[in-house]
Amino acid sequence: MNNKVAIQGILGSFHHQVAKEYFGDDVGVDECLSFDALVDSLLSKTSSVGVMAIENSIAGSIIPNYALIDMNGLHIIGEHYINVQHNLLVLKGQSIEDITEVYSHPMALLQCKVFFKQYPHIKLIEDADTAEVARRIHQGQLKGVGAIASKVAANIFDLDILAEGIQTMKNNATRFVIVQTKNSVIPKEAINKASVMFELGTKRGSLATVLNVMSDCKLNLTKIQSLPKIETPWRYSFFVDVTFEQYEDFEKAKALLKIMASHFKVHGEYKNAKK
Amino acid sequence: MNNKVAIQGILGSFHHQVAKEYFGDDVGVDECLSFDALVDSLLSKTSSVGVMAIENSIAGSIIPNYALIDMNGLHIIGEHYINVQHNLLVLKGQSIEDITEVYSHPMALLQCKVFFKQYPHIKLIEDADTAEVARRIHQGQLKGVGAIASKVAANIFDLDILAEGIQTMKNNATRFVIVQTKNSVIPKEAINKASVMFELGTKRGSLATVLNVMSDCKLNLTKIQSLPKIETPWRYSFFVDVTFEQYEDFEKAKALLKIMASHFKVHGEYKNAKK
Questions:
Q1: Where is the Prephenate dehydratase domain (chains A, B) (predicted)?
Q2: How high is the mean pLDDT in each 10-residue block of chain B (275 residues)?
Q3: ipTM, 2 decimals?
Q4: Structural domain tally of chain A?
Q5: What is the DSSP string of A143-196?
Q6: Between B126, B171, B204, which is nearest A109 by CB?
Q7: Are residues A9 and A80 in the same domain?
Q8: Residue A72, phi then psi, degrees to nearest 5
Q9: Which of A28, A156, A254, B96 is the 20 to 30 Å CA partner of A90?
């Protein structure tokens, strides 16, 4: 049995931080340079479990990751939140005027683009991982190049921090889910959150009817997102997260929703990490 | 009065295509290399109206653009859909083995990443615009570099199309909104769609209650998206699009929602472009 944890990124990345906080400091990780590679690591049994960013306050849900979970039949067995702080890292001795290119993960670039508006001479370039760019600057002793990454990465790769907390939203909570190919064996009394999806047509009030049932079953909605069904005009998929106090309430809602909505699917039942 | 239309991108971009289809072939455009620049063009009155991508089938809502509309008090006065087809464009005579770097808009890169999995020697690099990269390859006669852009761009900039329709979702409908700083003067009888936002606490069933009111007022939901409120745990913003047959029904719903939800705001009332 392989107990490695697949993370998006390398040692020093935010996914690595989450893996350490969730599984313990001595966690063994498989460094994956994309979310697709992370899924491959699980499917090939290189790793037994994975850590995947799923939503943040700026971009909302990372819909492509929902699609990866759905298409590959992964199960969400837990969640974890961290407050992501981005920093501009450069080779020691470099100043902001020296920097002409900054590389990072697309989500990090998006979160910091307001900061870089004041430096129009800097070109922002998408890269696979935040920490990997820091490693590259260190290994190649690259001048003129910046990374957007964590303080941990600055420390590991011996770089200067030119600017701290450069993301627009200072309180930048990012939610990660813990996923695996097999369903979890969490005891029912520990489960108080679930991620589900279902489809509805456009019959007026159909979503309200479903939400009424959830409310009647004492489920609290913590997230909802509609997505038009590809190739099927006027049908929608809904991704919904709910919290509850009694697992029995959720079981009752599941039984009802299977009848009311088509393609009802549970992506995971797990313990709420908030509060 | 300046009648220019602000677009994200340059001539030959998908935003340009939308501007032509919506305003006519001889539309005058202001080429903006980011959505922020597009908003600046409107606020500085360089343009009187703008075209902005707002959601697609793959990534869902482009939440940062909702934030731009909200924070800058823009009004949505219309919408337009096009089926975006991405193509790999290169300098004439180049083959796929010659190409080591492909530049495009982050959304185009995301939509085509599965295609590039079979070519691990190609590095994907984020750029401001799809068509602008095609122009650059043409002007610099750049070898080894590819662009992801439209067939129109291939034609304008005299490039080879190495691969057609390389996005994962072949039916890639993208929704654009038409925005301006002043509210619209659309006659009420032409209005049958609206984009609204509101906030709710986590009182159980509060969203179901709001959706029941919408349903009672004969509004059809075509999109819903929750977003956690920054710095306010357990409060959520909801972005909702509705369609209706009678403007009076929407007026009634507005009056009720202003009382029921906090921070209720109408981002636009316009004509539904579907069907």
A1: 4-181
A2: 85 92 94 90 96 81 84 94 93 96 86 90 85 94 96 92 90 90 87 95 86 94 82 77 96 95 93 86
A3: 0.75
A4: 3
A5: SSEEEEE-HHHHHHTT-EEEES--SS-SS-EEEEEEEESSPP---GGG--EEEE
A6: B126
A7: yes
A8: -100, 10
A9: A28
